[in-house]
Amino acid sequence: MAQQRIAVVTGGMGGLGESISTKMADAGYKVVVTYSPSNTKHKSWLDEMKSQGYDFGAYPVDVADYDDCAAMAAQIAKASGPIDILVNNAGITRDMTFKKMGKADWDAVMRTNLDSCFNMTKQVMDGMVERAWGRVINVSSVNGQKGAFGQTNYSAAKAGIHGFTKALALEVAKKNVTINTISPGYIGTKMVTAIPKEILDSKILPQIPVGRLGKPDEVAGLIIYLCSEEAAFVTGANISINGGQHMY
Ligand code: CAA
Q1: For the chain, what is the domain count?
Q2: Does ligand 1 come within 6 angstroms of the Cβ of 98?
Q3: What's the predicted TM-score (pTM) here?
Q4: Does the Cβ of 93 fall within 6 Å of ligand 1?
Q5: Residue 167 lies in a domain
Q6: CATH number at residue 87
Q7: Is residue 134 part of a domain?
Q8: Distance of alpha carbon 82 from alpha carbon 14, whole angstroms
Q9: Would you say 235 and 180 are in contact if contact means Cβ atoms under 8 Å apart?
Q10: Nearest protein Cα to ligand 1, atom 19
């Protein structure tokens, strides 16, 4: 890498986020993580990372809030320089059947999982186009591709992400800026281990031909590839990483 590229990972302290952040740092990127303002463990996480040799920039931001994203991006640009890579990874679930779902449960998931892609990408896209280099990786889900029981909100938001990816990829393709979606299946993170064990064992694991949950590092490895120079011809793609659970 001629010049150290700057990567922002939203939700960079979370289940997938920690693997993405550390692997990207290992790959030579300068990594800045964002975390939810309600995350009370950010300091201990940063201390732990420091003890492992990782010196991440870190900013609290509500990715559902446009102005918060704008302020944070300006701070990062000032402190670290222009953002070359954005991983829209932050996401939440509010799983419940449609019958039980209220408007607030719908809105929270749409805003945090889908609006966030607009809110964050908007802050970095003009700069990427001007510099004629950029990578945006939007983290969707197998459940945005195939639907999931108890996830009308999450599946809708995650499916929406890929529409956003495809449209924006068209607009900036000539500028050497790629926009891609990745769709992980069930990965061994807190979000998945929070699923009731009997549902995980009886309904979900039997659907995964590889016979296990995915590993966060496996997802991070795919993101590293998409950030690379070799991936310049991959844009507007939705890459599944789900142990064979859903093929299409
Ligand atoms: N497929 C088919 N049927 C299901 C099902 C599934 N995945 N999950 C639950 N059911 C059935 C149950 O077997 C039960 O059927 P019976 O009444 O005939 O016994 C019925 O639905 C009600 O189930 P619960 O008792 O669990 O109902 P609940 O209201 O307490 O909970 C739920 C419903 C919140 C949806 C709960 O079942 C659940 O958490 N399911 C898992 C949802 C899920 O897969 N979330 C993914 C999280 S991980 C993630 O999102 C990361 C990613 O990107 C992949």
Answers
A1: 1
A2: no
A3: 0.96
A4: yes
A5: yes
A6: 3.40.50.720
A7: yes
A8: 24
A9: yes
A10: 199
